[in-house]
Design brief:
By secondary structure, the protein is mostly beta strands. It has one helix at 21-25; strands at residues 12-16, 34-38, 44-48, 51-58. Strand 3 and strand 4 form a beta hairpin.
């Protein structure tokens, strides 16, 4: 059973965890396991076939820079 998550948006840092992802998985169209984890503080991890692909860490003040 999957718990639905409503659409939400946050400002923060997005990092591509594996720039050679196409070398690991091959074709652009793949079949496999997609993993998503969302922490209480808003951090998000997206994995494909057990390989970390994208991580997101929200800014604590919900803004793109500390100066705003």
């Amino acid at each position: 059973m999957i718990n639905p998550y409503p659409e939400s948006h946050q400002q923060g840092r997005i990092s591509i965890e594996n720039c050679n992802f196409h070398k690991i998985l091959g074709d652009k169209n793949i079949e496999g396991d997609l993993g998503i984890q969302i922490a209480r503080d808003g951090r998000i991890w997206i994995c494909i076939n057990g390989v970390a692909f994208i991580r997101f860490s929200p800014h604590p003040n919900q803004k793109m820079s500390k100066d705003e």
